[in-house]
């Protein structure tokens, strides 16, 4: 028996919904973060975007790739013939949702709340969870294509954002 409700599998059975869900949630998180920062700083919400416009687009693309990996993992769950393969796919999806949740927390912490250290802790946890998820998904039989094509770019992106977050925290500590 999976620890996830049926709905968690159902949204990933349709590839468009599986890809669109993390992108839509990311856009909502971005909007909420901009509003929080706007109230905190008095700047217009438009001014709260990352310094380079490509950042948001890369983040959305990486999230979409992760969503497609979740779709393939759900296909593996549905095609599983043994209890162990069902459990493995279910565990990979639990890690996917944990990754998605941590991802959605990062932006409100870093941009919205200006809590760079808390965002760094979150980012390190996100990176560890994403790598563990990628390994678990890779172990599944996900025909016709490996989930590595979708999870590795995501993990690399999270690694890069963790590096950037750590740089901001270290730079702030040097200034004080």
UniProtKB/TrEMBL annotation:
Its main location: membrane. GO terms for biological process: tetrapyrrole metabolic process. GO terms for cellular component: mitochondrial outer membrane. It is a multi-pass membrane protein. This is TspO/MBR-related protein. Keywords: Membrane, Transmembrane, Transmembrane helix. It is found in: Membrane. Belongs to the TspO/BZRP family.
């Amino acid at each position: 028996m999976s620890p996830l409700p049926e709905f968690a599998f159902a949204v990933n059975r349709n590839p468009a919904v599986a890809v669109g869900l993390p992108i839509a949630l990311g856009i909502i998180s971005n909007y909420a973060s901009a509003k929080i920062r706007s109230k905190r700083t008095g700047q217009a919400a438009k001014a709260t975007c990352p310094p380079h416009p490509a950042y948001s687009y890369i983040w959305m693309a990486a999230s979409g790739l992760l969503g497609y990996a979740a779709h393939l993992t759900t296909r593996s769950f549905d095609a599983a013939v043994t209890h162990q393969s069902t459990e493995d796919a279910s565990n990979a999806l639990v890690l996917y949702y944990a990754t998605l949740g941590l991802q959605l927390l990062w932006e409100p912490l870093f941009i919205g709340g200006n809590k760079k250290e808390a965002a760094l802790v979150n980012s390190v946890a996100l990176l560890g969870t994403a790598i563990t998820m990628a390994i678990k998904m890779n172990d599944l039989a996900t025909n016709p294509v490996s989930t590595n094509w979708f999870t590795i770019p995501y993990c690399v992106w999270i690694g890069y954002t963790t590096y950037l977050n750590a740089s901001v925290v270290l730079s702030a500590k040097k200034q004080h």
